[in-house]
């Protein structure tokens, strides 16, 4: 179980993380979602005491810095290639294992587990990003910890790798571990996560289960196709529905249950060719929840002429000006 309370971090004028409090339960995968620059990495670093800031995080009741053998309790993957460039992957893990009193037999076990058994004697600098992520997970799992904190572990993985990561994290959660994982891949999160912590510009937007998030931030609408759509619209509106017309002439009915829509059509003798429910995806919910809190907002290409030459300047983060809030 992870308990985070009042996490806070400021860089000069930018509040990167604003009084975030949340719990991450064991036995489920908890996804950590937010647009670029919303403060996910900073939050994870604060949780582990790697950044100065306010608030407190307890891992099964203990601060990370007070855990006697951290690798045995909390496995972390915060950056894609945190490896020694000249040591082989196996030697890298051997060094960590001996420093943390983990039996060396565990090294081959985790290399096998993440699918790197055949390349374990190679140096990680030759690894692809996807292989490096697998090695990062092997490192996080080395001490067989009950808690995992993973920052964007699917970055750089191909579709098979993403599928694999999803299955492995679900399995690890099923074993009773506490899994806190950040990702931009919302569709992946929908398949992988049971619970969510969603932030925007460092502020808490939502903390709860995925279905509630989708329900709270989106609407389920009823789709109606009918040759008498025009006549049916005022009937629906009289019952309190909000009706819009879709691109193919279908009615999109909000604020009315599908059963009542069917009942009204039957009562009015209106022929229906389709009556279905449309539920929003996690992606729709995410866009609706974080739309106004994006850190970097691009110009809408449809509303502006193309620039004469490609823009040369990329957005640069501000200089570090930590206030140790
Ligand atoms: N060293 C730093 N100095 C100044 N500002 C910083 C620094 N690191 C992060 N920030 C700012 O803090 C905010 C949060 O950044 P952070 O990297 O935690 O977001 P993120 O959600 O992990 O982003 P991404 O998804 O793009 O990795 C951003 O506004 C960022 O510009």
Automatic annotation (TrEMBL):
PROSITE patterns: ABC_TRANSPORTER_1, ABC_TRANSPORTER_2
Top-level lineage group: Bacteria
ABC transporter domain segment(s): 2-226
Source organism per UniProt: Glycomyces buryatensis
GO molecular function per UniProt: ATP binding; ATP hydrolysis activity
One Pfam match: ABC_tran
Similarity remark: Belongs to the ABC transporter superfamily.
Protein name in UniProt: ATP-binding cassette domain-containing protein
Region (Disordered): 301-325
SMART domains tied to this protein: AAA (SM00382)
Comp. bias intervals (Low complexity): 305-319
Keywords: ATP-binding, Nucleotide-binding, Transport
